[in-house]
Structure to design on (426 residues):
């Protein structure tokens, strides 16, 4: 029976964190928080409204998913000292906007719990780890490159359309990177964020929104298990969690030359499904894009210090959860392009690593197919593109690149630094 991989004690890691905390880590954690709350939080509120939930139930939903995500991210970053973020399924929230009107909230909660139970069983039996370990790394990186591709497009599109704000942010970011000694002391992404915020104020693009400060309150829900809800809600959510969301984070960590604790990356979110469901929230996952931001060189030039960004994102997430209603009102104050640009800047080096690892060695045809399917981002049979990118990528490699499977099909991508193992020391 598989259990979570061994890691560090939380106490020793926290003491180490106090020494390792740095501006780049805190700043990147804040950028990742902005990315995961500006927009996604509104998506959840929109889905709740579409599903006929009350304002109290919607706030409880946010409280559940952000509080568990925050606490789980803090736990994972301290246990393994790698930049790993636990969140919730954003595509799942979008899907629920269409499904919730046809079910009661207790029925939906019952469906969420079923996803958690199935994921937990597959994880503790070791089946998920066996499957993930057999996916060729270049194909996985091709999928990751395709998933993150839109962030690069969004970065330059916003910079071209509004050069007076986002173009300046990009130029400032590259200019700060050019002065390496200065960049080691003051993170370029933090400089770009501050400059962008100032420019938004100068050009009047920050909306004045009245805020009401109050702590979020949970609305507990007793589950009802409906066969129809299990078929229509549990099945698509299961594939989003297993084959779309978590696998992105695994690929991102491999791209940045970490050794992902795969069992923990599935086990912890499966436990989160029960916590979230108790307050009307949907399934937890290991986050791909947020993990990409926190594991990027923007978080720190040293791999072993990037866990700091994930830890502080977890802290910010938990604070967001407590003030969920106020936070959702606040996130509407800045344009969505601001967050898109920050996310693209943070992931800039991740793009390079993913593409180099995907297309420079074995399984190139499979990686190319995986990349384009992920870029297309079209679901098939309600299952998201990342899972199909892996399936078709492996199928093409089996057909055209059989020799690549004969020796070590999981050859790690070329990297400039050595692998940072989760169970070892620093």
């Amino acid at each position: 029976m598989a259990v979570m991989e061994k890691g560090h004690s939380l106490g020793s890691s926290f003491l180490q964190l106090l020494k390792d905390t740095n501006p780049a880590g805190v700043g990147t954690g804040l950028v990742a928080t902005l990315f995961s709350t500006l927009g996604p939080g509104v998506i959840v509120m929109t889905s709740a409204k579409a599903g006929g939930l009350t304002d109290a139930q919607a706030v409880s939903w946010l409280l559940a998913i952000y509080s568990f995500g925050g606490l789980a991210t803090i736990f994972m970053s301290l246990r393994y000292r790698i930049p790993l973020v636990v969140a919730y399924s954003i595509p799942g929230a979008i899907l629920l906007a269409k499904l919730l009107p046809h079910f009661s909230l207790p029925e939906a909660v019952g469906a969420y719990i079923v996803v958690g139970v199935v994921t937990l069983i597959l994880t503790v039996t070791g089946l998920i780890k066996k499957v993930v370990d057999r996916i060729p790394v270049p194909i996985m990186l091709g999928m990751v490159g395709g998933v993150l591709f839109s962030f690069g497009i969004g970065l330059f599109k916003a910079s071209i359309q509004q050069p007076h704000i986002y173009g300046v942010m990009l130029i400032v970011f590259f200019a700060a990177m050019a002065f390496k000694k200065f960049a080691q002391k003051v993170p370029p992404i933090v400089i770009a964020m501050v400059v962008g915020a100032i420019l938004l104020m100068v050009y009047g693009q920050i909306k004045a929104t009245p805020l009401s400060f109050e702590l979020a309150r949970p609305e507990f829900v007793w589950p009802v298990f409906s066969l129809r809800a299990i078929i229509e809600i549990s099945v698509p959510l299961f594939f989003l969690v297993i084959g779309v969301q978590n696998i992105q984070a695994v690929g991102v960590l491999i791209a940045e030359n970490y050794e992902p604790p795969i069992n923990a990356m599935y086990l912890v979110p499966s436990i989160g499904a029960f916590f979230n469901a108790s307050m009307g929230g949907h399934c937890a996952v290991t986050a791909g894009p947020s993990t990409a931001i926190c594991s990027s060189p923007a978080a720190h030039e040293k791999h072993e210090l990037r866990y700091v960004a994930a830890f502080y994102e977890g802290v910010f997430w938990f604070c967001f959860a407590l003030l969920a209603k106020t936070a959702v009102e606040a996130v509407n104050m800045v344009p969505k392009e601001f967050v898109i640009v920050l996310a693209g800047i943070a992931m800039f080096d991740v793009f390079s690593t993913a593409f180099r690892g995907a297309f420079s060695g074995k399984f190139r045809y499979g990686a190319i197919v995986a990349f384009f399917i992920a870029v297309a981002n079209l679901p098939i049979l309600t299952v998201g593109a990342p899972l199909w990118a892996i399936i078709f990528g492996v199928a093409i490699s089996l057909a055209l690149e059989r020799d690549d499977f004969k020796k070590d099909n999981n050859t790690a991508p070329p990297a400039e630094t050595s692998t940072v193992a989760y169970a070892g020391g620093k």
Remarks:
- The chain has one domain: 10-405.
